[in-house]
Amino acid sequence: MTRRIAIASDHAAYQMKAELARWLRDAGHDVLDLGTDGPDSVDYPDYGYRLARAIAGGEAETGVALCGSGIGISIAVNRNPACRSALVSEPLSARLAREHNDANVIAMGARLIGIEMAKECVATFLATPFGGDRHQRRVAKLGAPEAEANPA
């Protein structure tokens, strides 16, 4: 199944981004590359926000966010209420992010995992459907913190 996938990174992950974008295109996906495209220092929030706008605006249904650790860009993406970005470093967390949390963006750290592991994470993420059922109620609460049912 082909998808429209947005991908963005900061300078620490631009090489991983380029390789993943090429790999995804070779697999038949339509890839929206939002930069950056070189080693010059840039601010990861700018690229996380670009990716989030692409998801929220319907330009892409799924996103791949990359920076040195994956943490900062994931935080930036998650500032947009239309996005559920999950930081992953192996296929199990990629699968659970989709199955349990209906994540629409996967974030990874180029300084923490290699390209082959990144490909495995993305492949698993794309192949996993949202589980729905009991998870749907919980995912709905992610966008409505005021709906807390059991306050402490």
From TrEMBL:
Keywords: Isomerase. Coiled coil: none annotated. Transmembrane segments: none annotated. This is Ribose 5-phosphate isomerase B. One of its GO terms (molecular function) is ribose-5-phosphate isomerase activity. Belongs to the LacAB/RpiB family. InterPro entries: RpiB (IPR004785), RpiB_LacA_LacB (IPR003500), RpiB_LacA_LacB_sf (IPR036569). It is an enzyme of class 5 (isomerase). It holds the Pfam family LacAB_rpiB. Its EC number is 5.3.1.6.
